[in-house]
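writing this on my phone so excuse typos. first protein, seq and then structure
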Amino acid sequence: MKTVYIVRHGKAVPAHANIADADRLLTDTGVARTCKIAEYMTESKPVIDQIIASPAERAFATALIIADKLGIKANKVVSNEKLFTGDESDVLEVIEQLDDSVNSVLIVGHNPIITMVANRFADPKLESLPTTGVVSVHLDTEKWVDLKKAKVIQNFTVWPGML
C-alpha cells in the first residue's frame, strides 16, 4: 500500500512585475492556513517518508511548514523543478520514479496542474483545489510505477475553509 498527499501551496502574495513568479512568498494568511492544515493532518499521525515540492518559494515554504508541524526533518523535503514547470504527466512521473522503499509521499505544487493530479485520484472531482488544500489517497500497490493502474482508496480531502 502506498499513500499520496497532494497539496496546493499556501496563499501567496499576488504576482506583479517587480518579483519573479518563483520568488513569490506566502502571505501571513497563507502561513496561518498552512499551519491549520498541518495541525489537522497531525491528528491522523501520518507517516510521510518523502516530501517533494516545487522549488518556487511559496510551495517550498508550504512543504517546510507542514514538515515542521508533522515532526518531519527538513532534509526529507526536496524540490523538483517539474512541480513548477511541468504538466500533469511530469508530476505523475515524479511520483512513479520514487524508490519503492518510500511508502508515502507528500507533493506540493501549483494550480492548475496540482488540481489535475489530485483529480486523477479524488472522488468527487474538484473544480479547483484551494490554496493549502490536500487530497490524500491510499493506492493498492507496492510499486510506484503501477500508480496509474492501482486501486484508489480515498483517505481525505481538506482545505482551510473546511476547518
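second protein below, same order as before
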Amino acid sequence: MTDAHTSERTWNVYLSGEIHTDWREEIAAGTKAAGLPVRFSAPVTHHEASDDCGVTILGAEGDKFWHDRKGAQVNAIRTRTLIEGADIVVVRFGEKYKQWNAAFDAGIASALGKALIVVHQDEHQHPLKEVDAAALAVAKTSGQVVDILRYVICGELAGYTD
C-alpha cells in the first residue's frame, strides 16, 4: 500500500460545477486533513469576472450574444487546458441552477478519457443520467469525493486495515 505522505506523485484534480456553495473548499480541506498529495484547479468562480472577461480584455460588444461568446471563448482556454492536464475531473451539479457549463465540462472530460467523478443529489438523477453513465463514480457529498480520492491515491478504505 502506498503512503500518501511519501508518495512522490501529486495528483491534479479539476473541480468544475456550481459556484454558489463552498463544496470546493470542503474537498480541499478534506484532502489536506488526509494528507493527500493533490493540486486543485478550477474555472474562474467570480461570476461577473467570468461573464465579462472577454469584453473587458478584448473590447465591448453591443450585442449580448457576442458579449457572452467572447467570455465563453476566453474561459474555454482556461477550462480546456486545465481539464486536459487533470488526472481526475470532479463535476458538481448544484440544487438551485442548471449548470449547462458543468455538463459540457463533464463531456469534455469524458471525451478526453479523464477519470470523472460527478456529484449531485437524487433529484438530478434522471436529467443527468447520461452524464452519470460517463462517470466512474457518482457521489452525493464532498466527503464522498474525499474518500474516493483517499482510496484512489493511497489505496486506503475507511474501516479496513491490513
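The first strand starts at residue 11 and ends at 17. thats all i got for now
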